[in-house]
Amino acid sequence: MKYINKKLVIEKTSIENIAKKYGTPTYSYSYDQLRTNINNFKKSFKSFSPLICFSVKSNSNVNLIEEIKKFGLGADVVSIGELMTAIKAGINPKKIVFSGVGKTSNEIIYAIEKKILLINAESKSEIKEINRIAKLKKKKIKIGIRLNPNTDAKTLSQISTGKKENKFGVNEKTFIDLVKYCKNSRNILLSCLSVHIGSQILNHKPYERMLKVIDKIINKTNYKFEFIDLGGGMGITYNNKNRKLDYKKYNFAVNRFLKKHKSKIIFEPGRSIIGNTGTLISKIIYIKETKNKNFIILDAAMNDLMRPALYGATHKILPSKKIGKKTKKIYEFVGPICESTDKFITLKKFQKLKEKDIIAICDVGAYGMSLSSNYNLRLKPLELLIKKSKIRVIKKRQKYKDLI
User: Fold this and answer.
1) Among candidate residues 371, 274, 328, the one with its CA nearest the CA of residue 71
2) 273, 304, 334: which is the final residue of a domain?
3) How far apart are CA 84 and CA 21, in angstroms?
4) How many CB atoms lie within 10 A of CB 389?
5) Which of 16, 17, 58, 7 is nearest to 34 (CA)?
6) How far apart are the C-alpha atoms of 375 and 209, rounded to whole Å?
């Protein structure tokens, strides 16, 4: 997004025109930003050409995944619904990795039937269930084992996944035992060591520590893994205070690791691919004045964008046009839902606003629509893909007759 003649535009289309034609709240995605993100990610790690599996949980719009597939990406899925979506979008099953701690028998059966690349298991019980099903089907199934490396990603506690107190993966001792178990199975082929330490990571050092743990455990198992799945978690800059992840240093660390271990690297990026492509366009319904601040009541709410209410995430808010006048009052941007947590951000010295103005909530491409709900029986927003001056509806706005 940028301002042209003081009007905020996504590629070549002003958000005011989008709001006028399609209504609000509306999610709009920039194709140009999506392409840039994918190409930059590939370029950052071109020295070893990893398999890049887009994290479908970050954004599960099938039309967006179709566009992502055109760049040669695979998919990281965590449910049968996400797996079905990836396949419908045309993702090659041999580029699909199935993660998650609680895969049901039906999900495992479906994954086996679709001949996906890997099922990344997270417990001995899950491996036994995969083995049981594979034996019944008289097949040998490629799996990975997810290691919990007890590595603090220095991110929000709610999105940390690699510490020993988290539910994900297995510890070192269990991992070594499971490698031995898999060696003795006729129906399981252990192909991958998998890790994922968290989300919105902006420092390369946790990744370096993670790689050292992996190096150590591979040496202990003396096992040759075809794949090392390093997960995702690469963060983006939601505000001016965020630092950028140093991809050069991460790339250097992986290359150093690969000198010892000749495996194919898998990455599972989500936010870094889709996060800054998305904008939530909203309209001001009312401005409620109080002594200490003004509540800017939007038609978008926590059901449309859950991240601020769920774990205090911050998203920039921009006015649809610049007028230069600043308010002396504190503005608190809130939604109409009957919860005190239904608020987006509190700002000082913001541009003066009035009722019916259009605003943009930035960087909502990841975990925006995928975390949305019908709380308060509110309709989920429309979704648009913008490519220069062309606008395509990639998901229609819900209707009450379908919801009720």
Assistant:
1) 274
2) 273
3) 32
4) 8
5) 58
6) 41
Same domain, 242 and 290: no
Which of 211, 244, 273 lies at the terminal end of a domain, its last residue? 273
Structure tokens at 292: 């200490």
| Sheet with 13-14: strands ordered across | 2-4, 7-10, 13-14
Question: Using CA atoms, how far apart are residues 268 and 168, in angstroms rounded to an integer?
Answer: 16
Distance CA 120, CA 195 (A): 10
Catalytic residue (one of 53, 182, 192, 338): 338
Average pLDDT, the chain: 93
Over residues 356-392, the pLDDT tens digits come to 999 999 999 999 999 999 999 999 999 999 998 899 9
Residue 114 CA to residue 64 CA, distance in Å, equals 22
d(CA 230, CA 220) in angstroms, rounded, equals: 19
- Segment 262-298, tens digit of pLDDT: 999 999 999 999 999 999 999 999 999 999 899 999 9
Residue whose pair of structure tokens reads 């109080």 in the numeric block: 290
- Residue 350's pLDDT is 94
Domains in the chain: how many in total?
2
Does residue 338 have an active-site annotation?
yes
- Give me the domain span that covers residue 298: 2-29+275-403
Q: What is the pLDDT of residue 159?
A: 44
Taking the alpha carbons at both ends of the chain, their separation in whole angstroms is 36
Q: Domain containing 337 — which CATH number?
A: 2.40.37.10
Q: Per-residue confidence at 158, pLDDT binned at 50, 70, 90?
A: low
Q: Residue count of the chain, please give it.
A: 404
Which segments of 222-323 does DSSP mark as H helices, in order? 247-258, 271-274, 307-311
Statement to judge: residues 301 and 379 lie in one domain: yes
**Separation of alpha carbons 233 and 55, rounded Å:** 10
Same domain, 347 and 267: no
Question: Rounded distance, CA 19 to CA 24, Å?
Answer: 6
Per-residue confidence (pLDDT) for residue 199, from 0 to 100:
85
pLDDT at 162: 46
104-146 pLDDT tens trace: 999 999 999 999 999 999 999 999 999 999 999 999 999 999 9
